[in-house]
Amino acid sequence: MKIKPVNSYNEMSKLAAEIVARKIKDKPNAVLGLATGSTPLGMYRELISMYKEGKLDFSKVRTFNLDEYLGLPPSHPQSYSYYMHENFFKHVNIKKENIHIPSGNAPNPTQECLKYERQIEEIGGIDLQILGIGVNGHVGFNEPDINLKALTHIIQLADETVKANSRFFKNIDEVPKMAITMGMGTIMRSKQIILLAWGLEKKEAVIKAITGPITTKVPASLLQLHKDVTLIIDKRIYEKLKEDRK
Ligand code: GLP
User: Fold this and answer.
1) Please, which residues have CB within 8 angstroms of residue 112's CB and are 6 or more apart in sequence?
2) Are 66 and 34 in contact (CB under 8 A)?
3) What tens digit of pLDDT does each residue of 11-32 get?
4) Which residues in the chain come in under a pLDDT of 50?
5) Domain extent listing, the chain
């Protein structure tokens, strides 16, 4: 795991955007795995600026999002589909047919998972996967458990996740309790991964992910097994990590 400590949210966003931009320049039809949440918003803003300045072309880029709430249609302001369009896709020249997000209101969610996994496989896998991390160590919506599913699947959200994500909804009862998520196997097959973490509330999860035992109780700890992971993390978390190692 490569660790890049950063002093600010902006620095994290810029660094992440540079890695994405480099990938697209090397491979114009790169397959990107994308994340939602507060963490990657700055990175999307940076990528939009690069596009507007004529430095980046998304016309051949293909994308697969990590996850989606089950039961929310794409028109719902809290769906990840809506988030992606509002915060990124509508501002760049990505082609609609190259965007993939699991459908939260598919008539048959199990079939939707199988279809999504097949699409990723058929395209040749993900070249660069962007990840955030939940306060409980989840990635995508792979929640801590005694076992994890490898492929795209339906998952019941952990109470901590429902609570953490309730800040985006009018009240906690409106937060969906189920989601579709890529599995840890889907994520681990990505050729390159960057994980972003900003804020001290992520401290414990990040430290466990980096230095703790590899356990399904901290899904992000499985990333220790991947050969090309870059963690762009809050310097304050990094300092704590160094202290713990002394
Ligand atoms: C959400 C998403 C994750 C995201 C995480 C952290 O529930 N499913 O993909 O990384 O929680 O979100 P945030 O960046 O808002 O802290």
Assistant:
1) 102, 103, 106, 180
2) yes
3) 999 999 999 999 999 999 999 9
4) none
5) 2-245
CB atoms within 10 A of CB 78: 15
Residue range 2-245 in CATH 3.40.50.1360:
yes
Q: 136, 142, 153, 165: which one is catalytic?
A: 136
User: What's the pTM value of the predicted model, to 2 decimals?
Assistant: 0.97
- Is 219 a pocket residue for ligand 1 (Cβ < 6 Å)? no
Query: Which of the following is catalytic: 68, 112, 117, 143?
Result: 143
Q: What does the pLDDT look like over 206-239, one tens digit per residue?
A: 999 999 999 999 999 999 999 999 999 999 999 9
Q: Which residue, by CA, sits nearest to atom 11 of ligand 1?
A: 134
pLDDT value at residue 246: 75
Residue 29 Cβ inside 6 Å of ligand 1? The answer reads: no
Q: Among residues 46, 65, 67, 112, which one is catalytic?
A: 67
* String of DSSP letters for 195-239: EEE-SGGGHHHHHHHHHS---TTSGGGGGGG-SSEEEEEEHHHHH
Beta-bridge partners for 68: 180
CB 134 less than 6 A from any atom of ligand 1: yes
